[in-house]
Specification:
Radius of gyration of chain B: 23 Å
Low-confidence stretches of chain B: 1-16
Distance between the termini of chain B: 26 Å
Order of helices and strands of chain B: HHHHHHHHHHHHHHHHH
Strand content of chain B: under 5%
Helix content of chain B: 55-70%
Oligomer: heterodimer
Number of helices of chain B: 17
Chain lengths: 348, 550
């Protein structure tokens, strides 16, 4: 795969180049002042060229709007102070019905403002619009489910869930789908949002500029656990990404002890595989996340919980208590849970 | 035409004029229907507000457990549906019912019985919707009810059936009411009241009604298709059977965006009555305000897909809707300048009606500027479906529509009841609401920018969202306290003896010529009109508007 196929300078609108210095000073102050902590998933602290464009344009609009706001509210405040009625004043003011010249002027000024904004909108929209599929270095099929995200790395032949890995600097193309209702995929620091619509594949692309872990989540209301349909996006160096891909391509871990065997048997032969896929044991329907390399992930349950042994055990004991209304409605004996834990925790 | 309408409406208006509960049930008097609209809508407004407080309580802290996810989703759905269909729209309709005939010098609406029908459909539509809380679960898919989430497969309980049937009843009520307003405005104006001399509130109610007549069929169609899917088993929105997941959104927003103007234009009309009276000047650039209202009405039908910028439309279509959304900002801005210019050079007396009208101008400006952000595609892709949008709609619908409606409530209360609401309590209410709404809704801008989606019942710690949410919750309780002041004011005032002052504000328009409250027939003699301010002409004959060659 060819890396570093970044958008060229000619695709970057002039205003965006002016904006660069601007954003780093004022914009970042706004963003930092807003968050008060570095942990917020805000596009004003962008980690990709797309969010960078969007943040730059936002700051332009913000300052224009701020200017209009100050003018209007200042005129209002002035009028309220200057033209208040004195107690002893009984005379009526001069009756003014209108002023055609003024009315034309205050129609024309907003027209000019919105024309300017529209021009900026067109140039930036073109700069961040989806490229042809041939331009992509990595292609990921993202599928929205009630209430988790499935990531299918079609080029590499594996499927994972909730934790998205992308290499820094690569053009990543995302084909976006849903199997049930409408969801919306959004990792603010990487790109604007795009809806995942059943029967209607959408495309977006993103290029992470900075390595890091980014919070995202579903932003189209999709049912009872809409709030618990989150994304952990990991942008990493090409070497780290390759290592991660190789890990995901490893064959399914085979049981080494009778207890692990019992755990695998339970998954394959009992209700788990009604929804979950495990290595070559295809689930009947892709309803739940692929378990093959479960423990390679750091989050689960729609990226709502950290994936560790304690949380996983609680989940097996009572998934409904942890995420009320989710589709995993099971009643496992403590022996089944012990067996499952023995096996699942080996699925690195 | 006018004499025919008089002959028809005078005896009908008198028919429901007795005392007692039955007289209210049987009434076809536009004033009584207006009062019933206002009281019912205020009750629903309080109910919707309580739902909002529940939401704010849950969201005050990360990972809170005040409400379950299922309960929260029902509550935010019912909050939106209630405020839009059962509070703001009918409050506008209530004032319209009461004051449009009075302001145009008529004795009633054109179709008094249809008027009663539209009220009762509204009342029972609303009660039916709320009964879902008791009978098997409230709707829980948001006020815009996106399919396929609202299909039977994903919304198993009957909540969405209640929602759909209720929306059909309310839509029918609004359509009937709108036709009534249009016909009344065209046919029943007093002699001399040409279209260009109609009060601005009448103008805006007229424009609103025309918008409603053209917008509602789209909602009705969408809802019927949804109910057919749910109850009969058709597949209009069922993707796996060849239906479309996007059809609902186009049909809904073709109604839904004009709907925003259906809510805000009457309030713009209201403050266009209040600001001149309390500035002691005519509305500046009257016809420009009229034309901008008409422009908003027409353009409102060309921007619906700006609610759908993230659905993956082709860039050409996106830019078309983006351009229209920018253009619609222009006539809105024009109105703001007209209100400012009306106050400019005037003599402002800061009574409660004016305070709320000023609040409208100050707050709606913020909502309007937020709206411009939404038209900027690349910015919208970041802020849509976040709390930024929640902030925007509340600056428009709470800072705008609700403040305008309270302005009218204080302005017209003496006319409707013969009693004046307490200015002291009114000012307390205004400042509590003004401070509270800014505390509640301004930080939502920050939350949107910080990546908080709307419609989530909980959020994780450590994302920087907690502090803003806490501030918002405090603000929401301040707003609630303000509303409490209004209710106290209302009941205290109603318990006091009436003064029956006909024209306490020294106002300009015909409704103040009638007694307070007006007789069932409104005017013993139908007034004749020579300008936009007939009462000003009468009180200040040497400075009469018609002498100025308006």
């Amino acid at each position: 795969m060819s890396m570093g196929n970044r958008p060229t300078a000619s695709r970057v609108p002039l205003i965006m180049r002016i904006r660069k210095a601007w954003l780093l000073t004022t914009g970042f102050v706004v963003a930092a002042g807003l968050s008060g902590c570095a942990g917020s998933p805000t596009f004003l602290n962008p980690a990709s060229s797309i969010s960078d464009h969007e943040a730059g344009l936002y700051m332009v609009i913000f300052y224009l709007a701020l200017g209009v706001f100050i003018i209007v509210e200042a005129l209002l405040a002035y009028a309220l102070i200057r033209f208040r009625k004195r107690d002893d004043d009984t005379e009526e003011p001069r009756q003014v019905y209108g002023n055609m010249r003024l009315e034309v002027i205050w129609t024309a000024i907003p027209v000019l403002l919105v024309l300017t904004l529209f021009a900026l909108t067109v140039s930036t929209a073109n700069a961040v619009a989806a490229p042809k599929p041939a331009d992509s270095d990595v292609r990921i099929h993202v599928i929205g489910h009630q209430w988790w995200w499935e990531f299918e790395y079609t080029d590499y032949g594996f499927t994972t869930a909730n934790e998205l890995h992308i290499p820094v600097g690569a053009n990543v193309q995302i084909d976006l789908d849903s199997v049930d209702v409408i969801h919306s995929f959004w990792v603010p620091q990487l790109a604007g949002k795009t809806d995942a619509i059943p029967g209607h594949t959408n495309y977006l692309w993103l290029t992470a500029g900075t390595a890091g872990t980014y919070h995202g989540q579903c932003v189209e209301f999709c049912g009872v656990n809409h709030a618990n349909m989150r994304i952990k996006a990991v942008a990493e160096s090409e070497a780290d990404f390759k290592a991660w891909v190789q890990g995901q391509q490893q064959p399914l871990y085979q049981p080494q002890t009778p207890q692990e065997q019992a755990g695998q048997d339970y998954i394959v032969n009992q209700i788990c595989s009604n929804c979950h896929t495990l290595g070559e044991y295809e689930g009947k329907r892709s309803i739940g996340p692929n378990l093959t390399h479960l423990m390679s992930r750091s989050v689960f349950a729609g990226a709502t919980y950290d994936l560790n042994e304690a949380n996983l055990r609680s989940w097996l004991q009572d998934a409904q208590a942890m995420k009320p209304g989710n589709d995993m409605i099971v009643n496992l004996s403590s022996e089944d849970i012990d067996n499952l834990m023995a096996y699942l925790t080996q699925l690195k | 035409m006018t004499t025919q309408a008089e002959a028809l409406s005078a005896p009908q208006a008198a028919a429901g004029s007795g005392q007692g509960l039955l007289s209210w049930v049987m009434t076809v008097d536009h004033k009584r229907i207006g009062i019933m609209y206002l009281i019912t809508a205020t009750a629903f407004f309080v109910a919707g507000g309580i739902l909002a407080l529940l939401m704010r309580t849950q969201l005050a802290q990360p990972n809170a457990t005040v409400l379950s996810n299922a309960a929260y989703n029902e509550i935010f759905t019912m909050h939106g549906t209630t405020m839009i269909f059962l509070a703001i729209m009918p409050l506008g309709a209530g004032f319209g019912n009461y004051f449009v005939p009075l302001m145009i010098g008529a004795r009633d609406m054109a179709f008094p019985k249809l008027n009663a029908l539209s009220y009762w459909l509204y009342l029972f539509g609303g009660l039916f919707l709320f009964s879902s809380f008791v009978f098997g679960g409230a709707p829980d898919a948001g006020w815009f009810a996106y399919a396929p989430l609202t299909e039977k497969l994903y919304s198993i309980n009957h909540g969405m059936d209640y929602w759909g049937l209720s929306v059909l009843m309310l839509g029918t009520a609004t359509t009937i009411g709108s036709i009534n307003f249009v016909v009344t405005t065209i046919q029943m104006r007093a002699p001399g009241m040409s279209f260009t001399r109609m009060p601005m509130f009448v103008w805006m109610t007229f424009v609103t009604s025309v918008i409603a007549i053209f917008a509602l069929p789209s909602l009705t169609t969408a809802t019927l298709l949804l109910l057919l899917d749910r109850l009969v088993g058709t597949h209009f929105y069922n993707v796996s059977a060849g239906g479309s997941a996007l059809l609902w959104q186009h049909l809904f927003w073709f109604f839904g965006h004009p709907e925003v103007y259906i809510m805000i234009l009457p309030a713009m009309g209201l403050i266009s009555e209040v600001i001149p009276v309390f500035s002691r000047k005519p509305l500046f650039g009257f016809m420009t305000v009229v034309y901008s209202g008409i422009a908003i009405g027409i353009l409102g039908f060309t921007v619906w897909a700006h609610h759908m910028f993230a659905t993956g439309m082709a860039i050409g279509a996106l830019l078309f809707f983006s351009a229209n959304s920018f253009i619609i900002g222009v006539p809105t801005g024009v109105k703001i300048f007209s209100w400012l210019a009306t106050m400019w050079g005037g003599k402002l007396s800061f009574k409660t009606p004016l305070l709320f009208a000023i609040g409208f101008v100050a707050l709606f400006t913020i909502g309007g500027l937020d709206g411009v952000h939404m038209a900027v595609l690349p910015v919208d892709w970041q802020i849509t479906d976040t709390y930024y949008v929640v902030s925007h709609i509340h600056y428009v619908l709470f800072g705008g529509a609700i403040f305008g409606l309270f302005s009218a409530m204080f302005y017209w209360f003496p006319k409707m009841s013969g009693r004046q609401l307490s200015e002291t309590l009114g000012k307390w209410q205004f400042w509590l609401m003004f401070a509270g709404m800014n505390l509640t809704f301004f930080p939502m801008h920050m939350l949107g920018l910080l990546g908080m989606p709307r419609r989530i019942y909980t959020y994780a710690d450590g994302l920087g969202w907690g502090i803003w949410n806490l501030i918002e919750t405090v603000g929401a309780y301040l707003v609630a306290l303000g509303i409490l002041f209004f209710l106290i004011n209302f009941f205290r005032t109603m318990a006091s003896p009436p003064t029956n002052e006909a024209d306490p504000w020294d106002a300009f328009t015909l409704e103040w010529k009638a007694s307070s409250p007006p007789a069932p027939y409104n005017f013993a003699e139908i007034p004749s009109v020579r300008s936009r301010r007939p009462l000003w002409d009468e009180k200040y004959p040497d400075k009469a508007d018609w002498k100025q060659g308006e």
